[in-house]
Each structure stands twice: as C-alpha cells, then as structure tokens.
From TrEMBL:
Its EC number is 6.1.1.22. This is Asparagine--tRNA ligase. PANTHER family: ASPARAGINE--TRNA LIGASE, MITOCHONDRIAL-RELATED, ASPARTYL/LYSYL-TRNA SYNTHETASE. One of its GO terms (molecular function) is ATP binding. Its main location: cytoplasm. Belongs to the class-II aminoacyl-tRNA synthetase family. Residues 128-447 form the Aminoacyl-transfer RNA synthetases class-II family profile domain. It comes from Segatella maculosa OT 289.
Length: 457
C-alpha cells in the first residue's frame, strides 16, 4: 500500500492485499478502505457492484482480510491522489461482527485486553512503526559513532543494580512427579540465577576491552510498581565507554536522544502527523523543541533547592519534599522539567545512598557522579553515571551494602587488571517511545506488556 499510494502511473494493473478498515456504499459504487500495515494511510478500493456477487460484497466488513486485483487510477475524491478500481476480490478471511476492534474510539484500557488484536488499529500501527524506526535509529547512531553492539546475558548470577528486584530462573520437571510442572530440586546452573535487571556490568567488561559498546535487549524487574511508566519486562539500551568523564557522558546522553528524536521527525512523518491529530496536539512541536534546546544541567542539591522554594511559594506536591537525601518521585522530576525549566534536565551528583553501588563518588565523599536525564511527560528517561574504577573503593562499597562480594569477582577483575576510567548510561526504550509517540501509558508502547498481575500471553 505504501508503494501504491506513491505511484502515479495511472492505468497500472495492481494487486493490493490487506485488512478492511471501513466499507461504505453509495448508489453506484462501494468504497473499501484497505490497510496492510505498511503505512498509516489506507488505499481506497472502488468496487463496481456489477463485478462481484452481492452477498460476497456485503460480507466484506471491517477487519476482513482481502486481496484485490484491479487498476490504479487517479482518485476523484478528496484526501487521496490514487485509488484502486477493483476487477476481482478474493476473500482470505471474513471478520464476524463480534470483532473486538470493530468499533472506533474504544478506550486504551479496553484495547489492552485485546493486545493481540489492537495491533491492527491505526494508533497501534503508528506506535509500532515508530518503535521499529527508533530501534533502527539507535543502531545507526552507535554504528556511526564507533560503538560495538554487544550482547549481554539474559540469565545472570548477580544483581547488576544491587536492588534485589529480580525474577528467579528455575527449571520445571514434568516427568518426575507426573503431577504437572514442579520446580526442579537442584538448580540447573548449580547456583541461583535470575533474569537480568541490566546488562551494565557485563557491558563494562565489553567497554574495557572494545572501547565503546552498547547493549540493546530485554530487561526484567520484579518491582511492584503499577504506574504508567513501569513494566516488569522492558527493553534497555546501555552504552558504556572507556575514558569517558562526566561532562562527556552528559554530552553523549544529550546528543544520542536528540538524534533519535530527529530521526523520528525525519522518518515517521505520517505516523507522527496522525498521533499529533489523535493523541497529543502538541506532539510534533514538543519533539522539535527538544531537538533544538540545550538540556539544563543541574546538581541534585540545586534541584532540592528549587523544589523547596516551590513549596515556600505554595506549590503542593503529593510526595513531600524532605530535603537532602530524599529520592525524587516522577512528580518532582516533572515539576522541574515541565514547570520550572520547561526543558529536559540532566541531574547530577546525587547522594550516594540513593544510587547504585558502582557509581563513582565525588571527593566530598557524600555525592556521586550520576547523570540522570529527566524529560517532560516522562520523568527519568535515562539513568547513567561515571563508574568507580578503584578496586579498593568498589570492594568497600559492595561490602558496606551487604552484597555478596564473591558473585562480583568477575566484575571486580576489570578493576584489578588494567582498570580505566569509564562511564555509561541506560535508556528505557519504552520511555523513549512514550515520549516520541505522545502516548500516556507505557503498556501501550510495547506489543505485549508485562506488569504485576498481567501476563496474558
Ligand atoms: O536507572 P536504571 O535502573 O539504571 C540502570 O539500570 C543502569 N544499570 C543503567 C546504566 O547505567 N547502564 O534504569 C535505566 C533506565 C531508566 O532511566 C528508565 O528509563 C528505564 O531504564 N527503566 C524502566 N523502564 C520501564 N520499566 C521499568 N520498570 C524501568 N526501570 C528502569
Ligand atoms: Mg534510575
């Protein structure tokens, strides 16, 4: 369809296949809007009732899948330049009237119950084409900048974030009991293993060998966060670079996000125009301004000052501002970005206690060189830091946090043998897609969302 819509060689014989979006009839002819997923735009098929049996024509309802052989002609109607004059229609699959996606304008909550069918709607078609394009942009960016795509394991034996939010991996044994699947008594790997919460630690091994790497893969968190911005299974992009300092890390974060957003503006015009009309009237404007403006760079302490000043001026937050040492909620992050600065913010130098063990401490001993990127409508979109490269300091931190040093020995070897300064970050892929599409809920930007109490497929 995307090719047919661009073709102007009128009179060309053509075969289009797709799903019926709508079917209406005027006195003389029937109009079928057909979509094959290649573009948000439908192609109009004009059917002369003389060319087809009346019952068959009537059976072609919304959602049915058909193949049309006909001629590409210049369209007389408004809204399209070409259409297909049908000669012959083959029906691949009829669509009974209980088709859950038949009625237009259903709520996203309703459509989530039909995640397997919502893919066929205009909005989800647009979202998932953009998702594809963002994946291409990410690979393109890193390839152009000399990063190597590095595959880190999904099954791991250590907790990369040290936060204890992991899904354990066990084996099932059907045969032994005959009573259905039960966990194997002896662990397959001989030790406890889980699904990865981040590829960073293995990514650091890659960076200290290949110079600059990035990962791009599924990530799993057993955090019980039922919010529009958390998933139990999400995709993360984690670049890691040797010899990078804090300023350069922030430059990389900003340049990378801007590249991806610009890519969407350049390559997803029709889908963005659709979402701008249907989902968020300020979408394209917001994307354009993010690409143009320099991100604000702010320390955590400055952030706290701004929030405290806001409270003094009468602003009310749902989560109280308790001063230095508090963790920001997305409400606080969004206040800074949406109301105070009206621009994305890179926040740095958090208190060490509220961040992960691997982050490099500042000489003050209190704060560390973290660099989170906060975005309008999203809150935290990137979490990053300079890494502690000193063996002794890192061991001290691991022990002070009560973590099991033995399971990090392989990681500590990067510091033991030829340690180097390095830094990296993680971007939540779905949070980027949320921002670029204007969608409100993270469950609506991944084809099959996994959240607490839901994993239907
Ligand atoms: O801030 P996080 O936890 O950082 C890390 O995992 C580091 N190891 C990254 C690194 O430095 N290599 O997660 C990074 C990003 C967050 O900023 C957020 O965008 C996303 O991953 N994220 C989630 N996205 C969806 N659902 C969740 N439950 C998420 N948790 C984190
Ligand atoms: Mg974080």
């Amino acid at each position: 369809v995307v090719d047919a819509l661009q073709c102007t060689e009128y009179g060309t014989a053509i075969n289009v296949k797709g799903w019926v979006r709508s079917h209406r009839n005027s006195k003389a002819v029937d109009f079928i809007a057909l979509n094959d997923g290649s573009t948000i735009n439908n192609i109009q098929v004009v059917v002369d009732p003389e060319t087809i049996d009346a019952e068959t024509l009537k059976s072609i309802t919304t959602g049915a899948c058909i193949s049309v052989i006909g001629t590409l002609v210049q369209s007389q109607g408004a809204g399209q330049t070409v259409e297909v004059q049908s000669k012959e229609i083959e029906i691949y699959g009829l669509c009974p009237s209980d088709y859950p996606m038949q009625k237009k304008g259903q709520s996203f909550e309703y459509m989530r119950k039909y995640a397997h069918l919502r893919l066929r709607t205009n909005t989800f078609g647009a979202v998932f084409r953009i998702r594809h394009n963002m994946a291409i942009a990410i690979h393109q960016y890193f390839h152009e900048h000399g990063f190597h795509y590095f595959h880190t394991p999904i099954i791991t034996a250590s907790d990369a974030e040290g936060a204890g939010e992991m899904f354990q991996v066990t084996t099932l044994d059907l045969e032994r009991t005959g009573k259905g699947p039960v966990p194997y008594e002896k662990d397959f790997f001989g030790k406890k293993t889980s699904l990865t919460v981040s590829g960073q630690l293995e990514g650091e091994l890659g960076a200290t060998a290949l110079g600059a790497i990035y990962t791009f893969g599924p990530t799993f968190r057993a955090e019980n966060s039922n919010t529009p911005r958390h998933l139990a299974e999400f995709w993360m992009i984690e670049p890691e670079v040797a010899f990078l300092d804090k300023e350069e890390l922030m430059d990389l974060e900003e340049d990378f996000i801007k590249y991806c957003v610009q890519w969407a503006l350049d390559n997803c015009k029709d889908d963005l125009a659709f979402l701008n009309k249907m989902i968020d009237k300020t979408l394209i404007e917001t994307l354009e301004s993010v690409v143009k403006e320099r991100f604000v760079r702010l320390t955590y302490a400055e952030g706290i000052d701004i929030l405290e000043a806001a409270v003094k001026q009468g602003h009310r937050f749902e989560f109280p501002i308790t001063g230095w040492g508090m963790d920001f909620s997305s409400e606080h992050e969004r206040y800074l970005v949406e109301e105070h600065f009206k621009r994305p913010v890179i926040m740095t130098d958090y208190p060490s206690e509220i961040k992960a063990f691997y982050m490099k401490k500042n000489p003050d001993g209190k704060t560390m060189q973290g660099t989170d990127v906060l975005f309008p409508r999203i809150g935290e979109i990137i979490g990053g830091s300079v890494r502690e490269e000193d063996y002794g300091k890192l061991v001290h931190e691991i022990e002070a946090r009560g973590m099991e040093k033995e399971s990090y020995n392989w990681y500590l070897d990067t510091r033991k043998y030829g340690s180097c300064p390095h830094a990296g970050f993680g971007l939540g892929f779905e949070r980027l897609i949320l921002f670029v599409t204007g969608m409100q809920n993270i469950r609506d930007v991944i084809p099959f969302p996994r959240t607490p109490k839901t994993a239907e497929f």
